[in-house]
Amino acid sequence: MSITQTIIPNLEETEPPLDTSLVMPEEIDRVRRTIAAYQAGSVDESLFRRFRLQHGIYGIRNQEGVQMVRVKVPFGRLTARQLEMLSHVADVYADGHGHVTTRQDLQLYYVPLGQVADLLAALGSVGLTTREASGNVVRNVTADPLAGVAPDEAFDVRPYADGVARFFLRNPICQDMGRKFKITFSGSPADRAYALMHDVGAIACLAKVNGRLVRGFNLFVGGGLGANPRLAQPLEAFTPEDQLFATIEAVIRVFDRLGERANRNKARMKFLIAQMGIDAFRELVFQERSVLPMLNARPYPHFNDDHIGWVEPPSPAPTPGERRPPGEDDEDFQRWVATNVVRQKQAGYAAVFVTLPGGDIQASQFRALAEIARRFAGGEVFTTITQNLVLRWVAAEALYGLYQRLDEIGLGAAGAHRLPDVVTCAGAETCNLGITTSHVLGLEIRRRLGQQGDNYLSDDLKGIDIKISGCPNACGHHHLAAIGFHGAARRINGQIVPHYRLFLGGRVSGDQTVLGTPVTLIPARNVPAAVERLIALFRAGRHAQETFQDWVDRVGPRALKNEFEDLQALPAPEEAPEAYRDWGRDIPFALETGEGECAA
C-alpha cells in the first residue's frame, strides 16, 4: 500500500489521478542521505545550509535541530488530496498547523531535521514539492486567486503560471543566480497578484494582430519591496503568448549575467535596472530573446484553446437532503456574503474567500477543508497573497450550507480584505531577520477590532487594509497597505523598546500602484491604539464619499505625524514593564537579529 493510500484511505474514484510530475523521488533520497551525512559530521555547515535552502528547508530562530519547511504551491492551487496530506504531515512531523505566506506558499514549523525527508516523501506522494521554495532561484510562481472565474479578466492566466513554474523548476539557467527571482500573473489591470512588485509581472491583455484577436501580456520588470522598494517598469506593452517564455528566459539570462553578486544587498534585479536604465536593459533582453532559438534551450510549452480555458466542471447543486435555508434572516451569514463572496463570471456560481487569522490553519482544518472542497468547490482550494483561501465553483444555492460548514470548523468569519483581515510576515518568532513579533501583533489587532462587531466591517472602511512586516524587508507587504507597519527598535527611558514604523497611503488599485509614505515610529504596545485613532481621524475628517486613500492624499501622510505624539511616550519601566516588551513575550525586549535564510 502506498503512503498516499495509507494516509488517505478513501480516495474518491471520481477524482483525477494524482499529478506528481513536479516531484523527483531521487531528489528526496538525496536529501535524506545529505541530512544523515550532515548529522554524522561529514558535510560542511555552509554547504549544507545552501543545500537545504534549495529544497525549502529553513532554520528556525533560536531553535536547534528543528526546521521550517516551505511547500511550493504554484499559482496557489491545492487539491483535496493535498489538503489531507498537509493535515497528516502537520500533525505527525510539525507542530500541528500550517501557515499561508504572502507568496501563496505553505509553511510547516518545528520539523525535526531527521524527519524532514519523510515529510518531503509524504508531500511528494500527492505532487507537492519544496524544491526551490528558497535560494537564488525562481521562487514560487504566483497568480490572481480568481484566475479563471474573475468577471474582469482578459483570459485565464493559470496555464501560463503553471507552465512558467514547471519550465524554470530545476532549469540549469537559474540554479545559482545572484539573488532570488519572483514572477507573477494577473488576469486584469486590477492586478490582484501585485505585478509591479515582482522581478517579472505579467498582466493579461488582448490585442489585434493581423486582424486576429491574440492573447498576450503587458510585461513589467524590476519590481520589489524590501528596504529599498521599487515599482516594476514596463518592458513590453504587448508580448504575444508565443513569446512569453522566451521573453522571461531572456530577462533571467540578462540578470544572471550582469546582476550584482559581491554585495547581496544590491543583488536583486531592481538594482541592476536602476543602474543601467530600463532602455538599455530592454534592448539587451530583446537581443537575448532573438538568439534563444539557436541555443537549443528547453522547448517552450505551446498553448491552444483546448487547455487555455481550464474551466472546471461546475460543482453539482446540493441534493435535497443537503439544501439549507437561504439564510435571509441570518445576519452573520449576510455579513459574510457581503465581505467574503464574489460572483463568478460563470452564471450561478461564486468564489468564496475563507479568512485565515494570521494566515494560520490547523491540521484538523486542513482535513475538514478537503471534505468541504469536494462537496462544494470541485475538490480544490487556492491560497492567496493576502494569506487566505479561495473556494471556487460554489453553487449559489449552496452558499448557506458552505457558510455553516466553515463556521463549524472555525473558518466562517466575515471580513475578507477588510480592516481586521491583517496580513503579516512570520516575524521574530521564527525568522532570523525579524526585529519584532509582527505575527502576534497582527492577531492582536484582529482580536481588538473584532471586539467591536460590525464597526470595522462597514462600507465606509472598505478598501482599508493593514499589512505588517517584522523588519524593513517587507515580507508582509507593508509598503502596499493603506496602513502599513514594519518592525524597528528605539531607546526610551534608557531601554531598547520594540517599535513599528507607520506607513500610510499604499495601494494596488487597478489604474495605479502607490507605495506608502513613512510617517512616524510607534511603540509596539501602542500600535493597536494607533490603528483605532487613525480610523477615528478618518471618520471625523473625511469629505462625503471620500476614501481613506483620498483622505490621506488630501491631508498628507506626514501632516498626521503629530496625531501620535502621546502614543510615542511610555511610563517609566518600573511602572509599566509590559509596555517595554514585544507582543507575545513576557521577557525584556532585546534587539537580536541574525543572518537571514531567505537571502542565503
Kindly name the structural category: alpha+beta
Unreliable spans are none
- How many β-strand runs? 22
Reading off the top of the CATH hierarchy, the class of the largest domain is best stated as Alpha Beta
Largest sheet: 5 strands, antiparallel
Whole-number radius of gyration?
A: 24 Å
Give the amount of beta strand, in percent. Answer: 15-25%
Provide the helix percentage.
25-40%
Number of domains: 4
Q: Supply the CATH architecture of the largest domain.
A: 2-Layer Sandwich
CATH topology of the largest domain: Sulfite Reductase Hemoprotein, domain 1
Give the tags.
Sulfite Reductase Hemoprotein, domain 2, alpha+beta, five-stranded antiparallel sheet, 4 domains, single chain
Task: Please tell me about this protein's structure.
There is one protein chain. The chain has four domains: 3-124, Sulfite Reductase Hemoprotein, domain 2 (Alpha-Beta Complex); 149-307, Sulfite Reductase Hemoprotein, domain 1 (2-Layer Sandwich); 331-408, Alpha-Beta Plaits (2-Layer Sandwich), CATH 3.30.70.3340; 423-580, Sulfite Reductase Hemoprotein, domain 1, CATH 3.30.413. It starts with a helix and ends in a 32-residue tail after the last helix. The mean pLDDT is 92. With 600 residues, the chain is of the alpha+beta class. It has helices at residues 3-7, 25-39, 45-54, 80-92, 116-124, 158-168, 244-258, 269-276, 278-291, 305-308, 331-340, 363-376, 399-408, 438-450, 527-541, 548-555, 565-568, and strands at residues 57-60, 63-71, 77-79, 97-100, 106-112, 142-143, 183-186, 200-209, 212-221, 233-240, 341-343, 349-354, 360-362, 380-383, 389-395, 423-424, 466-469, 483-492, 495-504, 507-508, 513-514, 517-523. Strands 1-2-5-4-13 form a five-stranded antiparallel sheet. The protein is globular, with a radius of gyration of 24 Å. Helices cover 30% and strands 20% of the residues. The protein contains 17 helices and 22 strands. α2 (25-39) runs antiparallel to α5 (116-124), α4 runs antiparallel to α12 and α14 crosses α15.
